[in-house]
Design brief:
The structure is a homodimer of 395-residue chains.
Chain A (H helix, E strand, L loop, with lengths): L3 H8 L3 H16 L5 E2 L11 H13 L2 H5 L8 H15 L8 E4 L2 H12 L5 E6 L4 H8 L3 E6 L9 H7 L4 E6 L12 H18 L4 E5 L23 E6 L12 E5 L6 H15 L6 H10 L7 H17 L11 E5 L5 H10 L2 E2 L1 E2 L8 E5 L4 H16 L3
Parallel strand pairs in A: 1-10, 3-4, 3-5, 5-6, 6-7
Antiparallel strand pairs in A: 2-8, 7-8, 9-12, 11-12
Helix pairs in contact in A: 3-11, 5-11, 6-7, 6-10, 12-14
C-alpha cells in the first residue's frame, strides 16, 4: 500500500487548477480572446527591469563555482543580513542575519515553520476565507486544521469566535494579510487586538500560541495610507513567512524567507526547529542565484499600479451591475458575493458567459467567488459585458 | 513544546558541516593554503560554459512573465519531455513526459518519493556506507531506516544480508551508485541480482518492494567502459531520483527530477503519490529558470576529467604511503581505511597535519574516513606530504 493520503492529494487537482485547465481547453475551442480567465493567482505584471539587469550581471560576472555552489542551509550570510537590515529599516525591528532563514518560496516557508512548531495532535487556526493549501500543510505536519469564520462582509477577524476556538492544543494562528482570496488587509488595531487576545490566553492557560504571518502580498497594497503592520512589533511569539513571488513577480523561481522574532525568549529553539524542519523536508538551501538576486533587489517591487487600475475598473463596473463587492485594499483578488446561494452553481453559470471564477467553498466560505484580477486590463474590458449579462440573467 | 525532533536536528550540525566550519576557522588562523579541506562534496569544477550562455540567453530573450511564472507542479511539459526523451535515448526506455516530475534537487527527489510510498512503520533499506541524510528523510516520512552492511572492502551489495533484512514491512530499498561516500559503482550484474532478489521476495510474500535509485553522480564515472545501468530495464517497481547538482555543478540551484518507471502496473498511483507528496511538503514547482536551463543543456556535463586526475593522483600517492584504498569508479569521494580502529580518533590525528577528513561512522561504517576530492589539483599536491607524515606517525 502506498501513502494513500498523498496519492489522493495527487489525484485531486485543486478546483482552481481544474478551472484553469478547463479554460485552456475552452480557449483552444473558441479562441483565447473569448475566454475570460480569472482563475489563477499568477502575477501578470512583469518583474521590475532591475531583476533582469541584476540576473544578467550576476551570471556574467560571478565565479560559477561560488555562484552556483551550496549556500549554508539558512541561506548565504550576506543575503540574510540584507533582508534583516531592510526589515529593520521598514519596521524599526532589531533583527539580525540569524533571524532569517531563506526558503524556496511561501509554501516552503509555511511547511518548514509548521514542522518546526507542531507535534501530532496540535491545532492550528486560520481565518476563513483562507488559502486552501493551509489545511494540507497543517495536516502533513501532524496538526488539526481549525478554520475560524471571519466577520461577515468585512472579512476582518471575529475575535469572539477566535477566543472560543483557542484550546490547550492550539499551537499557532496563521494570518494572511493582504488576504488571498479576499484582498482584505488587517490594520494596526486588528493586529494589536489579536496580540492582546493571544497574550491573555497564554497568561491564563500557560499555553504559548505562535502567530504565523503569511505575507506574500505585503507590498501589494493600493493606497499610500494603508500599511501592513509588522507582527513583530506587537507579539513576541511571531514568525513571518515571506515570498518574493508576488512583489517581484517571480512565482516560479521559488524564493522567499522565514523571519523569526528575536524578541521571544525561546528564539534559539524555534530557529533550530526551523533548521531541522528544513532538513527533514529536503530543503538543502534556497536557490543560490535567486538568493544573490534578492541581495540586489530586496527593496524593489513590480509596478502594482497596474493591479490597482484593474481593481478599480472591475469594482466600479461590478457594483454598477449590481454585484456586492468588498473593495479590497491589497493583493490581486476580489471576493464577490455570488448572485445565488450556491457559489458553485453560480460559477458554473458564469462559465456559460466564458467567465472563469473560483467558487469560495474551497477557501472555507460559502456563497462567494474569487476573481483573480492579475490579468491584462484589456481582458477585463472585454469581460465586462459578460459580467453584465451574468448579472442580468439573475434578474 | 516545539517539535523536539526537528529542534534537535536543527541543533546538531552534521559532522561534515562541523568539520567544514572548523576548517574555516583554522584557515583564518594559519592561512587558507595551509589547511587541506577534504570535508565537503561541493563541486570544484565549474558548470560547463553552455550553462552560462544558456542562462544569459534565456534571461535576455524571454518574456519575464512567462519565464518566471509558475510551471505546473510536475514541471513544464516541454522540460519533462526533453528529460524523458534523453533518458530513452541513453537507456532505451520508453518513458514519456508524464513519467517525470521536476524537483528542487536530489534531497527533494528523495523526500517526495519517500512520502509518496511510505506509511508509518514501514521499513526502508539502504546499504552502508550510505548518505547520512537518508535516515533523516526516512524517519520524517514515518519509516524505520534499516542499514544493511555492504561486502567488506569492495562495498558491493551483500545479498545474503539483504535477504535477511527484507520483511513484510519493507517498502523500499535505496541504492546510490556511484556511491557517496565510497565512489563504488554497481555494475549490471549487481543490478540484475538485486532485481531478482526483490522479485523473488515479492513472489513469495506478496509484498512489493520499491527500488529507489539515487543517482546524482550518474555521469561522474571515470572510464569509458564503466556504465551505470538504468534500474528501469531490470525492475518494474523502480524510481530514479536525479539531480543536476554534480553533473552540471549547480548544487546551490536545486534542480533535479524524479522519474517513475512506467513499466509498473501501479504507475499512475505512484506518480499521483509523488504529486501529492510534493504538495504536502510545500514544493510548488521546481525553480522555473533552471527548468528552462535543463531544456537547453540536458546532455552536458562538467569537465569530469579534473576529478579523474584528482582521483589518480590521490590514490597512487596514498597507496604508496601505505593506505588501503578502494579505487573508486565514480563520484568524487575516496573511502579510505583509517590507520587505527577508531576512525574518529584517526580523523582527529589527521587534523594535527591540517588534513580535514570525515570519519565514516556517520555513513554507517566504522574504521574508514571519507576524502572528498572535489578540490583543486593544487591543494591535493600540497596535501600529499601531510598524508605521508600522518601515515608515518602510525609506523
Amino acid at each position: 500500500m502506498l501513502n494513500e493520503t498523498n496519492v489522493a492529494l495527487g489525484k485531486t487537482r485543486s478546483s482552481i487548477r481544474e478551472l484553469f485547465e478547463y479554460g485552456n481547453k475552452r480557449k483552444a475551442e473558441i479562441g483565447e480572446r473569448n475566454v475570460y480567465d480569472f482563475s489563477l493567482g499568477n502575477p501578470s505584471v512583469p518583474a521590475p527591469e532591475e531583476v533582469k539587469n541584476a540576473l544578467l550581471d550576476i551570471i556574467a560576472n560571478s565565479d560559477p563555482v561560488a555562484l552556483h555552489g551550496y549556500t549554508s542551509a539558512q541561506g548565504a550570510y550576506s543575503v540574510r543580513k540584507t533582508v534583516a537590515d531592510y526589515l529593520n529599516k521598514l519596521f524599526a525591528t532589531k533583527l539580525d542575519a540569524d533571524c532569517i532563514y531563506m526558503t524556496c518560496g511561501a509554501a516552503a516557508s509555511l511547511t518548514i515553520t509548521l514542522n518546526a512548531l507542531v507535534n501530532v495532535g496540535d491545532e492550528v487556526i486560520a481565518f476563513s476565507p483562507y488559502f486552501p493549501e493551509y489545511k494540507v500543510f497543517c495536516n502533513h505536519a501532524g496538526a488539526v486544521f481549525v478554520a475560524v469564520e471571519s466577520e461577515r462582509d468585512t472579512f476582518q477577524i471575529d475575535f469572539e469566535k477566535l477566543e472560543k476556538a483557542l484550546t490547550a492544543k492550539t499551537k499557532a494562528v496563521i494570518i494572511n494579510s493582504p488576504n488571498n482570496p479576499s484582498g482584505v488587509v488587517y490594520g494596526e488595531g486588528v493586529i494589536k487586538k489579536l496580540a492582546e487576545v493571544l497574550k491573555k490566553f497564554s497568561a491564563e492557560t500557560g499555553n504559548t500560541v505562535y502567530l504565523i504571518s503569511d505575507e506574500p502580498y505585503r507590498e501589494l497594497v493600493f493606497d499610500g495610507s494603508i500599511k501592513v503592520p509588522c507582527v513583530f512589533n506587537y507579539y513576541a511569539h511571531s514568525i513571518v513567512c515571506y515570498s518574493y513571488s508576488k512583489s517581484l513577480s517571480l512565482p516560479g523561481e521559488r524564493i522567499g524567507y522565514i523571519a523569526v522574532n528575536n524578541a521571544m525568549a525561546e528564539f534559539s529553539e524555534v530557529y533550530a526547529g526551523i533548521c531541522g524542519a528544513g532538513r527533514v523536508l529536503g530543503y538543502v538551501c534556497a536557490p543560490a542565484l535567486f538568493q544573490r538576486l534578492v541581495e540586489r533587489v530586496y527593496d524593489k517591487t513590480s509596478d502594482i499600479s497596474i493591479y490597482k487600475a484593474n481593481r478599480d475598473t472591475l469594482c466600479s463596473a461590478l457594483e454598477e451591475y449590481g454585484y456586492k463587492v468588498v473593495r479590497p485594499d491589497g493583493a490581486f483578488y476580489l471576493f464577490v458575493k455570488a448572485l445565488e446561494e450556491d457559489a458553485k452553481a453560480f460559477a458554473e453559470r458564469a462559465k456559460e458567459y466564458e467567465l472563469l471564477l473560483v467558487a469560495g467553498d474551497d477557501f472555507g466560505v460559502k456563497g462567494y467567488v474569487r476573481i483573480a484580477y492579475c490579468v491584462s486590463a484589456d481582458m477585463i474590458e472585454r469581460a465586462l459585458p459578460a459580467f453584465k449579462k451574468l448579472a442580468e440573467s439573475y434578474k
